[in-house]
Design brief:
Elements (H helix, E strand, L loop, with lengths): L1 H8 L15 E7 L4 H9 L4 H9 L1 E5 L7 H10 L3 H4 L5 E4 L4 E4 L2 E4 L4 E4 L2 E4 L4 E4 L6 H7 L4 E6 L11 E4 L13 E5 L7 E3 L2 E5 L2 E2 L2 E6 L15 E8 L4 E6 L2 E6 L2 E2 L3 E8 L3 E7 L1 E5 L5 E4 L3 E2 L9 E2 L1 H11 L11 H5 L5 H25 L3 E7 L1 H9 L12 H7 L2 H17 L6 E6 L5 E2 L2 E3 L1 H7 L27 E4 L3 E4 L14 H15 L11 E5 L1 H4 L11 E5 L3 E3 L1 H5 L7 E3 L6 E2 L9 E5 L13 H8 L17
Parallel strand pairs: 1-26, 1-27, 9-10, 9-26, 11-13, 29-34
Antiparallel strand pairs: 2-37, 3-4, 5-8, 6-7, 10-25, 11-23, 12-13, 14-15, 15-16, 16-17, 17-18, 19-22, 20-21, 21-24, 22-23, 27-37, 28-36, 29-35, 30-31, 31-33, 32-33
Length: about 650
């Protein structure tokens, strides 16, 4: 970390004091995944002159992330001004202890409490509701409560947006129309493709008769039907192999595409109750090829911001106003489609093109919001560095198993280019600086290479902490379907979470609370930290924490029993996340998802830059909310455990 220390030491002070002058303004640019080490490297190479200038005006330092350094956990630290024990988000994936049912940890949809059954329909007599599971205070709501005008664009972990006088659009963790983080569709008649579901997508085999393919676009489930059957839309693809073109006909839209061409946003409507109630979505079509076999990609169906049937903004009119002024845009929380890349539906070139579209769309929105920002508080979120670093780290790390010189020559420039593009956004924000304006540029975590993956559940099984029902079927069943719970003491679920099979908590718990529970935790901590990679000799796991050691607050008792923090270059395997038991404990990561941050937070610090020096050293994400409230002279909620960086 020598370079980081040098970067921090090069700062100098300006504008001392603890409170902004009258009519203060604060701009926060949230750069998901901006890495402190890369920032310094690219500043020295001259790629980031605006960040360098901002550092020289005030200060730069690495920013401590959360443990685990997962985006929903980290951004919740920032938003709530406290640690996971105070906001209740501990992992992407959580589980219902009474049933072991996994669910996305940030929001939950509750069906109507009262319905009227009529034939095959179940008509609601009360409203369904979507609940934000993040607890604790919300920075911009606290500002708005005290009369500070607040605009928050693409706020992570804020779906549905908390109701307040703040104007906000939800970002990371906002689902697609299916309620997932994103499900793409892919249509082909290629014999090399198998039909079925893949992680994050669905591949459909089609037949072309006289140049026409009849297809189905899968829609959301119909909540008005008792059987909750999905509502699907038929559409046609008319092909012209002579000119390598195709026309997509769906509802009222007609899209004529050349091979390798994207459509504009297309509005699609799914009728739920006759034609009276519809769910509106938007999607884009990409004609990958026409011959020798047809291949057509469709983005996940995004919630239509102009007619949202799920709450994506507060007030509702904010999303509609943005759509009217900017046109349709991605509402999906993770718009760069890494799933299509991992499934081999996108080539590297195609993924890069789609990701560049996302960035350009976000830049247009940023220009729009900057032009409209007059006073108060503005938060604006950029997703590109996170998802594109996940996908293209293998192009900049010669030690990654997927690195090749050809890949580096073709795409090694992409991550540096993204940093330079976001530096231009910093420069645009700096045009608004005056004595009354503070600018923070910050990230939730940094990045490193994800070279090796560890099957935590396999290790538990091989070491007697878990048992299969059928040892011959090991590794074939997801979500613990092959688990003999009468002989299983511990299980891993999510990326960094380890649970004990506790009696009277889990449905078939066998571990007694009290001394047995604590003894097993201590044993697991010792043994997990001792694991070494036989190929490298390196420790696989950097640290294992009891939640009480690193969390405080009313929700600490909801945390996993142990938080597993991996060593640099290692991460939980994809199979660990889904609750399976492959026979191999350690293996190379051969997925294009080659960079990551779900390791020990000390390996992946974020960044903090400001046009004003702060007093305290070693800032953490949860320090920013109380710091910003203090700048306006506002009271800090007792739930916020962070510090005011401008006060000694």
């Amino acid at each position: 970390m020598t370079a980081l220390a040098m970067g921090s030491a090069s700062c100098y002070s300006c504008s001392p004091g603890n409170k902004l002058p009258n009519s203060p303004r604060t701009i926060v640019l949230g750069m998901d995944g901006m890495d402190a080490r890369l920032l310094i490297t690219y500043m020295r190479k001259g790629l980031m002159p605006n960040c360098k200038r901002l550092m020289e005006m005030g200060r730069f330092t690495p920013l401590k992330s959360s443990d685990p350094a997962q985006s929903p956990v980290a951004w919740s630290n920032f938003i709530s001004g406290t640690n996971p024990g105070g906001h209740g988000i501990f992992d992407f994936i959580s589980r219902d202890a009474s049933s072991l049912r996994p669910y996305l940890s940030t929001s939950q949809t509750h069906p109507p409490e009262h319905t009227l059954p009529i034939g095959k329909f179940s008509l609601p007599l009360s409203s369904a509701r979507t609940e934000l599971l993040r607890k604790g205070p919300t920075l911009w709501d606290e500002l708005a409560k005290q009369g500070v005008p607040s605009t928050v664009f693409k706020a992570p972990v804020n779906f549905p947006p908390t109701p307040s006088d703040a104007k906000s659009l939800s970002g990371l963790t906002t689902p697609d129309i299916h309620g997932s983080y994103g499900i793409f569709s892919f249509y082909t008649n290629s014999p090399k493709r198998n039909a079925g579901n893949v992680a994050g997508g669905n591949i459909s085999k089609i037949k072309i008769v006289d140049g026409i393919a009849d297809c189905i676009l899968n829609g959301p489930v119909n909540s008005f039907r008792k059987d909750k059957a999905p509502v699907n839309i038929p559409f046609k693809i008319e092909t012209d192999t002579a000119s390598d073109m195709a026309r997509v006909l769906i509802q009222e839209s007609r899209c004529l595409l050349k091979q390798g061409e994207w459509s504009d946003w297309v509005t699609v409507e799914f009728p739920m109750l006759a034609k009276r109630i519809k769910v509106s979505g938007i999607c884009r079509f990409y004609l990958k090829q026409v011959s020798p076999h047809l291949e057509l990609y469709v983005t996940p169906i995004n919630i239509n911001p102009a007619a949202a049937t799920m709450p994506v903004s507060a007030p509702d009119s904010y999303a509609k106003k943005l759509a009217s002024e900017l046109g349709p845009f991605y509402t999906q929380g993770m718009p760069e489609d890494t799933a299509a890349l991992s499934a081999g539906v996108f080539s590297d070139d195609e993924f890069r093109e789609q990701s560049t579209f996302v960035l350009k769309e976000r830049m247009r929105a940023f220009e729009h919001e900057m032009n409209n920002f007059k006073d108060g508080f503005l938060y604006f979120y950029f997703s590109s560095l996170d998802l594109d670093s996940h996908a293209f780290w293998r192009a900049i790390d010669p030690e990654h198993p997927l690195y090749t010189k050809a890949l580096a020559n073709k795409h090694g420039d992409y991550i540096p280019w993204l940093y330079s593009q976001l530096d231009s956004a910093v420069g645009r924000a700096m045009e608004h600086l005056d004595d009354n304006t503070l600018l923070f540029v910050m990230s939730d975590h940094g990045f490193t290479s994800f070279r090796r993956q560890f099957n935590l559940n396999s290790w538990l099984m091989d070491n007697g902490y878990a048992s299969p029902i059928n040892s011959l079927d090991r590794g074939q069943a997801n979500f613990f379907q092959n688990t003999d719970w009468s002989r299983t003491k511990a299980y891993g679920l999510g990326i960094n979470s380890l649970y004990l099979n506790l009696r009277n908590r889990e449905p078939n718990g066998i571990v007694n609370s009290g001394s047995d529970f604590e003894s097993l935790r201590s044993e697991l901590i010792q043994r997990l930290k001792a694991i070494r990679d036989p190929e490298t000799g390196a420790a696989v796991i950097s640290n294992v924490y009891r939640p009480q050691e690193i969390y405080s607050g009313p929700y600490t008792n909801r945390a996993p029993d142990l938080i597993v923090c991996y060593n640099e270059y290692y991460r939980a395997s994809w199979d660990t996340i889904l609750g399976t038991y492959p026979r191999q404990q350690l293996l190379d990561n051969l997925d294009p998802w080659s960079g990551d941050h779900c390791m020990d937070s000390k390996f992946v610090p974020g960044v903090l830059l400001c046009n004003r020096n702060w007093q305290l050293d070693s800032p953490a994400l949860y320090d920013l909310a109380p710091t910003i409230l203090s700048l306006y002279g506002l009271p800090i909620p007792t739930e916020m455990t962070g510090r005011n960086l401008f006060s000694l």
